[in-house]
């Protein structure tokens, strides 16, 4: 959805640029072996850290898109909704960690001074990376929580 | 010569020294050469900013100078730009100069140097160039990051149709990088080994959010790109105009023309500048702006509207007098006073725009189909009187005003509605009646049409009906029927009545409509005439009446098939003898009946003519329901008595009877017709629509026919739907039925009687134990013919006989007596096929009647067959045993039967005496296993009595066997 507003190449069918990464955003892609070997604390803290970064990045992307696509309120609303969902998930994960007796990592500024002064194209790129990682991290979080649920039934 | 040489040497030396001096003078630095040259880069605008100063200028000294600036790209020898910059230089002044590069500065190194010359008339001796400054190198690539490649420029804003140069700079020369514009690969040219340049000519606007240009390497490098914001060319504002409504605020409007298609932050802004006051305001809107009128009475205004964006600036001007641009506000407090049925006074107020202004107001009044327009000069309050209005009519009034002295624009309309008062109805209602005589009384139904709005002059509340008996003038009656009734029913006697009908509203009464009603409905028999309908109705005409007629009335029903008829009428004047009756209710295929009445001078209506017709005739949609009767082998009768001619969609002219037969022969009175399905049949034509029976004759017995009866009209026949099938009977079956049916009935009756009296019949005809003395049959015979036969005596007995006839074949036939001398069983076995003449006769004594009789048997020459003991019976069940038994019983006593064809003839014991019949055994019985059983009528000893049973075990049976193979 977000890509449709950005023009070519982002809106091209099947567009994918896995090489585009943001140093401030931990990638969700992980090998199955590594993922499976994670203990509960690592698993939850990875996800918690990722969604913390995602909430901040989604805020940045929302600001970017307000400049780039001011005439697309639906896009802006979706980004805002995604950010709120990430924040909600973050709160739920904190509750799980508390329930499991795990320490909650402190909230930190993941963005730093990076984003300002980026060109329009760079802002489109980082919007793509953030929304892509949001999707990947959501998928991974589902699997994380499913694993934990199987481990702690009831 | 030597002297000449010395002189020459001296001259050369002098010349040389002069040259040396001159060269020394020339090589000396110019006192006002550019110094401290610094180059600044503005990547966003692709600009180089040069900053330098000129030293050695005296205090307050100003000098006109020319600076020649040279710019090279990639290498110093590749000069791409030379420009002379003239300016006046002051003491201690820092000079600036900018240059915009077509190529993004990041794409290549740039080198800049400059030199100066004095271009001042005050110091003409200094007017030659100084030395070049040293090359200043600008190399932005050095400050780039560590990415594999970069694309420049970043986020460029250009106008549609301009040319743009883009480049990528790669860290490595091995990178194979492709660049795309909106997904289409661009062809570039290599500027340096690691730099490629793409020239985009006449770039087009694609979308407001910019055009993406991106590059990517073939080694999995991430994509890099730029967004090119292409703006449409900013146009000059159109229709710039300013006006005021209240002389305190000017409202300026304009048409911004087509949008530049840029994001809001890049879009153009509008500025309003007034030159007389020197005031300027930034407009918040794209198409209008407010301007506060100065409190000091400034009359003239000179506005400049400027539209400006990053790329272009457009301005328009407007000079005007404030008082000529007054656009008054809409009037208010529009009121109507003194509203009567025909007059009204309208008042309104206007906003004051100054003490000295007079407004011209335009008032319009819209009634029903009329417009009244007035122009009124107004200073504060407006007033206008309207006369000649229609009663009880809603009028819509509107008023607008403009500056009367300097017309600029009308104000908006202010609208107000009002309704005039009611007045008494102006016309008498149109009244008609329908009279029926019921049991000596007249039931008069009065109808009237509601008055039109123009005639009613208000809301009709009720109708007054005054019934005046003309025969007894003293008696009159008043009825009041509330609206909106359009009729009423009156029960009157046979007297003559005059009825007055008036319509009443809240103000008054209409003129009366008068009609005379008598007991005679006036529906004398007149001939009905057919009329042809047209598209717009029925054109009716009638004969003018010789006497005095006050008018004519045409009457009809809008819905003649409906239960309510919906009576309609049309009144015409006495001189009119034709009219066109039209109604929205008229439908094709419906018969309408019109009655034309004349109204006498005494106001008595009387029927003149009747007309009937269809607005449009339609072909019949249904065929009659035909009943077939009197079916004979040669004819049948068709009947459709229930078919109503009047309710058909057109005038029925007659009927067609179609008859299909296999023979296909058409008799006289019919003609061959081909139906739509190519079937051939006979068509009978009935020209009288009232003839609703038809006899189809000349048919063949036992033949299959199909018939169809369909009406025909001027517009066609009914549908050729399903034919009715009929098969004629044969000629004799009716006769046979007349005979057979009574016979069957009689037989049945007899059978029933026999069944009911079965016991009696049995006793009488065939009792279980026959007793000749009790035989009523015999007694009957005896009494009539021969009394001696009442009881058969022994001497009367004619013994049964079996004749064995010889046959030509020599097969031996024998009857063998069983070993038991008492056997009484005889088996008669047929032998050969044909009877060949007389042969030896074997006579059996029949012991039919009683033991005594059997004991004293004396007839025939065949010995009595003894009765077989019971123990022998089992042997007889098989044919072989049977054969043996026969052989033993009879062969010995009879001796050898002569060879030849043999047959057995059985002669009934009664036959000779009573009838003489004898049975000849079938020589070749058709049934292979026929076994006729002869039940010997013989009394047996009581000890051997047993219930009669079938089969070979029966004690007293003679069986005729037909199985030839057992007989030798």
From TrEMBL, chain B:
Membrane-spanning residues: 735-756
GO MF term (any one): cytokine receptor activity
Membrane disposition: Single-pass type I membrane protein
GO annotation, biological process: oncostatin-M-mediated signaling pathway
Keywords for this protein: Disulfide bond, Glycoprotein, Membrane, Receptor, Repeat, Signal, Transmembrane, Transmembrane helix
Signal sequence residues: 1-27
GO-annotated cellular components: plasma membrane
InterPro entries on file: FN3_dom (IPR003961), FN3_sf (IPR036116), Hematopoietin_rcpt_Gp130_CS (IPR003529), Ig-like_fold (IPR013783), LIF-R-like_Ig-like (IPR048497), LIFR_D2 (IPR040817), Type1_Cytokine_Rcpt_Type2 (IPR052672)
Cellular location(s): Membrane
Keyword Transmembrane carried by entry: yes
Pfam families hit by this protein: fn3, LIF-R_Ig-like, LIFR_D2, LIFR_D4
Domain named Fibronectin type-III: residues: 330-423, 428-523, 620-731
Region (Disordered): 945-968
Biased composition (Low complexity): 945-957
Subunit and partners: Heterodimer composed of OSMR and IL6ST (type II OSM receptor). Heterodimer with IL31RA to form the IL31 receptor.
Family affiliation: Belongs to the type I cytokine receptor family. Type 2 subfamily.
Protein name (Swiss-Prot/TrEMBL): Oncostatin-M-specific receptor subunit beta
GN (gene name): OSMR
């Amino acid at each position: 959805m977000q890509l449709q507003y950005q023009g070519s190449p982002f809106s091209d069918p099947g567009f994918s640029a896995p090489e585009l990464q943001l140093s401030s955003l931990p990638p969700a892609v992980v090998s199955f072996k590594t993922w499976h070997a994670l203990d509960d604390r690592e698993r939850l803290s990875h996800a918690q850290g990722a969604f913390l970064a995602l909430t901040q990045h989604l805020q940045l992307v929302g600001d970017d898109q307000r400049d780039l696509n001011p005439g697309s309120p639906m896009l802006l609303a979706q980004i805002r909704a995604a950010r709120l969902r990430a924040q909600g998930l973050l709160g739920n994960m904190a509750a799980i960690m508390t329930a499991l007796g795990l320490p909650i990592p402190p909230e930190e500024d993941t963005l730093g001074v990076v984003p300002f002064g980026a060109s329009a194209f760079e802002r489109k790129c980082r919007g793509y990376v953030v929304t892509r990682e949001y999707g990947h991290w959501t998928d991974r979080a589902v699997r994380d929580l499913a694993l934990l649920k199987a481990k702690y039934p009831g | 010569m030597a002297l000449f040489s010395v002189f020459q040497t001296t001259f050369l030396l002098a010349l040389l020294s002069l040259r040396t001096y001159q060269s020394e003078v020339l090589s000396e630095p110019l006192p006002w050469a550019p110094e401290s040259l610094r180059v600044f880069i503005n990547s966003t605008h692709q600009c180089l900013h040069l900053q330098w100063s000129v030293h050695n200028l005296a205090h307050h000294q100003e000098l006109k100078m020319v600076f020649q600036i040279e710019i090279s790209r990639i290498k110093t020898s590749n000069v791409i730009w030379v420009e002379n910059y003239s300016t006046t230089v002051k003491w201690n002044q820092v000079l600036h100069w900018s240059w915009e590069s077509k190529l993004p500065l990041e794409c290549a190194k740039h080198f800049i140097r400059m030199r100066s010359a004095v271009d001042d008339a005050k110091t003409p001796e200094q007017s030659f160039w100084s030395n070049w400054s040293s090359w200043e190198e600008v190399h932005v690539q050095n400050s780039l990051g560590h990415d594999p490649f970069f694309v420049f420029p970043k986020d460029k804003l250009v106008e549609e149709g301009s040319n743009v140069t883009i480049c990528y700079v790669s860290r490595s020369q091995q990178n194979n990088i492709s660049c795309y514009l909106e997904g289409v690969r661009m062809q570039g040219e290599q500027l340096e080994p690691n730099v490629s340049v793409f020239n985009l000519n006449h770039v087009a606007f694609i979308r407001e959010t910019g055009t993406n240009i991106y590059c990517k390497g073939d080694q999995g490098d991430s994509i890099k790109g730029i967004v090119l914001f292409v703006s449409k060319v900013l146009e000059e504002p159109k229709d710039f105009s300013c006006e005021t409504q209240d002389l305190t605020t000017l409202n300026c409007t304009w048409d911004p023309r087509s949008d530049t298609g840029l994001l809001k932050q890049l879009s153009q802004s509008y500025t309003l500048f007034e030159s007389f006051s020197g005031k300027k305001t930034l407009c918040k809107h794209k198409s209008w702006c407010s301007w506060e009128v100065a409190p000091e009475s400034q009359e003239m205004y000179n506005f400049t509207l400027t539209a400006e964006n990053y790329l272009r600036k457009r301005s328009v001007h407007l000079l005007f007098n404030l008082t000529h641009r007054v656009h008054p506000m809409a009037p208010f407090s529009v009121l109507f006073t003194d509203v009567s049925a025909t007059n009204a006074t309208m008042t309104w107020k206007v906003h004051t725009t100054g003490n000295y202004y007079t407004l011209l107001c335009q008032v319009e009044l819209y009634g029903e189909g009329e417009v009244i327009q007035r122009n009124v000069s107004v200073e504060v309050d407006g007033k206008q009187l309207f006369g000649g209005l229609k009663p009880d009519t809603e009028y819509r009034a509107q008023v607008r005003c403009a500056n009367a002295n300097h017309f600029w624009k009308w104000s908006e309309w202010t609208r107000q509605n009002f309704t005039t008062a009611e007045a008494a109805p102006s016309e008498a209602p149109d009244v008609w009646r329908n009279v029926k005589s019921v049991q000596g009384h007249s039931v008069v139904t009065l109808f009237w049409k509601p008055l039109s709005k123009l005639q009613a002059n208000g809301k009709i509340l009720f109708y007054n009906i005054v019934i005046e008996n003309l025969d007894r003038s003293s008696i009159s009656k008043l009825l009041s029927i509330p609206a909106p009734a359009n009729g009423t029913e009156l029960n009157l006697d046979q007297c003559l009545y005059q009825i007055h009908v008036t319509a009443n509203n809240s103000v008054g009464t209409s003129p009366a409509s008068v009609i005379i009603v008598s007991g005679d409905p006036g529906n004398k028999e007149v001939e009905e005439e057919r009329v042809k309908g047209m598209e717009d109705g029925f054109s009716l005409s009638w004969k003018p009446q010789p006497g005095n007629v006050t008018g004519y009335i045409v009457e009809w029903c809008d819905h003649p098939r409906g239960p309510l008829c919906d009576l309609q009428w049309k009144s015409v004047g006495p001189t009119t003898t034709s009219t066109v009756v039209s109604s929205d209710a008229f439908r094709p295929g419906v018969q309408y009946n019109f009655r034309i009445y004349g109204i006498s001078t005494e106001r008595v209506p009387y029927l003149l003519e009747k007309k009937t017709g269809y607005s449009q005739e339609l072909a019949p949609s249904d065929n009659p329901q035909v009943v077939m009767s009197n079916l004979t082998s040669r004819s049948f009768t068709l009947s459709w008595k229930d078919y109503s001619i009047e309710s058909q969609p057109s005038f029925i002219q007659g009927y067609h009877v179609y008859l299909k037969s296999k023979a296909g022969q058409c008799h006289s009175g019919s003609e061959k017709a081909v139906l739509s399905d190519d079937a051939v049949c006979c068509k009978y034509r009935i020209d009288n629509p009232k003839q609703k029976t038809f006899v189809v004759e000349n048919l063949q017995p036992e033949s299959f026919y199909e018939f169809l009866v369909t009406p025909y009209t001027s517009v066609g026949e009914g549908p050729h739907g399903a034919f009715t099938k009929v098969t004629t009977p044969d000629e004799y079956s009716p006769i046979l039925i007349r005979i057979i049916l009574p016979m069957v009935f009689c037989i049945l009756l007899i059978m029933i009687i026999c069944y009911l009296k079965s016991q009696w019949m049995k006793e009488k005809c065939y009792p279980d134990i026959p007793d000749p003395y009790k035989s009523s049959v015999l007694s009957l015979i005896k009494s009539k013919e021969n009394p001696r036969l009442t009881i058969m005596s022994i001497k009367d007995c004619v013994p049964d006989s079996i004749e064995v006839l010889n046959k030509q074949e020599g097969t031996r036939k024998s009857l063998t007596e069983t070993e038991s001398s008492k056997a009484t069983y005889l088996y008669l076995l047929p032998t050969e096929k044909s009877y060949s003449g007389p042969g030896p006769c074997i006579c059996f004594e029949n012991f039919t009647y009683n033991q005594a009789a059997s004991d004293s048997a004396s007839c025939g020459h065949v010995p009595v067959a003894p009765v077989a003991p019971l123990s022998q019976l089992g042997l007889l069940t098989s044919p072989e045993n049977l054969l043996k038994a026969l052989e033993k019983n009879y062969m010995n006593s009879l001796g050898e039967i002569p060879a030849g064809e043999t047959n057995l003839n059985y002669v009934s014991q009664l036959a000779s005496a009573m009838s003489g019949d004898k049975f000849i055994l079938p020589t070749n019985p058709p049934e292979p296993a026929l076994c006729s059983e002869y039940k010997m009528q013989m009394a047996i000893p009581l000890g051997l009595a047993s219930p009669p049973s079938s089969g070979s075990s029966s004690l007293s049976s003679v069986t005729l066997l037909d199985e030839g193979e057992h007989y030798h």
